[in-house]
Amino acid sequence: MKIALVAPSLRDPAHARVLGALAEEYARAGDAIRVFPPRSGLTAVESRRALEAMLANVDLCHIHFFSRGLGWLSGARFPSRTKIVLTHQGAAFDFMERRDVFRALAARADAVTAVSRDGLRQLRALLPKTLAKTHWIPNGAALPASLPPAAAKFRRDTFILSVGRLAAYKGTDLLLMAFAELADERRDLRLMICGPDQAGGRLQRFAGRLGLEGRVSFLGATRAPAVARLVADCLFFVLPSRRENMPMALLDAMAAGKAVAAAKVGGVPEAVTHGVDGLLVPPEDAHALAASMRRLLFDPGLRARLGRAARESARSYLWPAVADRYRRLYARLVRGARGDAAKELEVVL
Predict the structure, then answer these.
(1) How far is CA 226 from CA 58, 98, 114, 213, 282, in A?
(2) What's the predicted TM-score (pTM) here?
(3) What domains, with CATH codes, occur in the chain?
(4) pLDDT score of 348
């Protein structure tokens, strides 16, 4: 198949991760892959024209709609012969910047997917007319590969790790409050936080007000190999989010055999079973989060048991399995298109 994969930006770690992982699996299966955007700095008009030119030579276009960045698709022309798959990737629909564009794309799409069952319920409630063409296909995880050398300043097993953009819905403030509750119980303990800062430095200042100077490291947007090294070396992984869909960072930590403490939101309880392969806490509860972190910190047997189970649970989320589910959906759509004698008309959003 000739497949175009579309996301808002390849500079965003999450966007690049999804497209990169799927493109690798599809290429391994022998598909011809085009990734969009091909470069940064395009205007909305230039982006539409470039995508339209690309679609002239593909069988299927798969659009991953995150919360922001795809408003330029308003007015895009899609050849009727090109099958469209639309995936809702954002944390929640009420975060969506251009819901009108998403609705128009959903009406045009041949299939609409969500990356969690919770997201699928939201999708069907928001767009009941799409019910017959909606599907659940989760985000993926990667098994640890060869890792870069450990960074000397991050000594193994002396830090807790959280990965995610610094934004209100990610609950980093809750994590900082929870860490402040237990930081004095082990003086060499550090908290590492990876992710682009969308909060304008407010969380760094908040950490200072909590007296956590020198105990918390904000590492910013971090390249995937370095994140994998941090995951491998951390004591355990924490996801404190207020809202989530199906977070890849959580799945990666589980695939690496790490115990996780996570807020019970969105698709998280679909991946984590409390007490079996992780610990779940109520959202917005810094004290409960601190209690779970304390359990993992001082009970190495619990950490090991949850980590082993997490690795097993993550197997169903590995990217090859996820890509295979998408390819089977693509194949059904494309086979139907090739048997269709409909006229070659353009559909305009």
Answers:
(1) 35, 33, 29, 23, 30
(2) 0.89
(3) 2-140+318-348 (3.40.50.2000), 159-316 (3.40.50.2000)
(4) 41
